[in-house]
Amino acid sequence: MAYDDKWVGLLAILCGVHIVVALVLASPFLFFGRKRVKWKLVDCLGLVCPIGFWFVLTLLKPVAKNDLDSIFEPFMISVAVAMAALARVVVGRKVPENTVSIFLTGLLCVAAVIIYFCDPTTHDSM
After folding, report:
1. Mind listing the pLDDT tens digit of every residue in the chain (126 residues)?
2. CA distance 78 to 22
3. Which of 1, 94, 11 is nearest to 57 (CA)?
4. Distance in angstroms (rounded) separating the CA atoms of residues 86 and 8
5. Cα 102-117-106 angle, rounded to 5 deg
6. How far apart are CA 115 and CA 14, in angstroms?
7. What is residue 47's three-state secondary structure?
8. How many CB atoms lie within 10 A of CB 40?
9. Residue 26 per-residue DSSP state
């Protein structure tokens, strides 16, 4: 079953909402950790990559047109992004910052895939 334009548009809006929610949830950690951690542009990949993985997986495996169970998955990914920001602040400069950023981004991508497959009512195994 192929997606219609309205469903793809809804998924794109969910991706935008994910970024806003993730920034709101992570903003206290970003603000209060600004002296402990130097935030770089590579850290923005932690916002975009996980939701990109989820978006592609959702497009690869169509669901019923009236099925909105997957609407909460981006919010779970947003919470994971906020927890990764907290972990980045806690680690601080003990480990090289680029290493931590890349590791956390990879971990967030794995979390997005796990979140996608953990809802058995929406997604069957590919």
Report:
1. 455 667 778 888 888 899 999 999 999 998 998 888 888 888 889 899 999 998 888 888 765 444 566 778 889 999 999 999 999 999 988 889 889 999 999 999 999 999 888 866 555 554
2. 4
3. 11
4. 32
5. 5
6. 15
7. helix
8. 10
9. H
- How far is the CA of 89 from the CAs of 1, 26, 63, 93, 95, in angstroms? 44, 11, 38, 9, 11
The structure tokens 């680029």 sit at 98
Tens digit of each residue's pLDDT (9 = 90 or more) over 58-93: 888 765 444 566 778 889 999 999 999 999 999 988
Mean pLDDT taken over the chain: 83
Long-range contacts from 4-12, C-beta under 8 angstroms, 24+ separation: 4/65, 7/65, 8/59, 11/55, 11/58, 11/59, 12/55
Domain boundaries defined on the chain? 5-117
